[in-house]
Amino acid sequence: MLLGFFLNGLYAPLYTYLPEVCPTRLRSMAAATSDAFSRIGGITGPVIIGTMYASLYFAGVFTLICAVLAVGCW
Questions:
Q1: Across the chain, what does the average pLDDT equal?
Q2: Which of 73, 53, 74, 54 is nearest to 64 (CA)?
């Protein structure tokens, strides 16, 4: 539940920062594209993790997620 709280907090910068970066003509398309990719990730993420859990178990999945997050934050 706590993770969901923080993940939903990532949408606030999207709608406050996007108007500063994108010109008016591209603003709605950029917001829609960003929202679409986040929804696709939200749909495919549990399926991928569930499939990986069958072979890697908890420790392997946890390590892989930490590695992906570390690379993404770097």
A1: 84
A2: 53
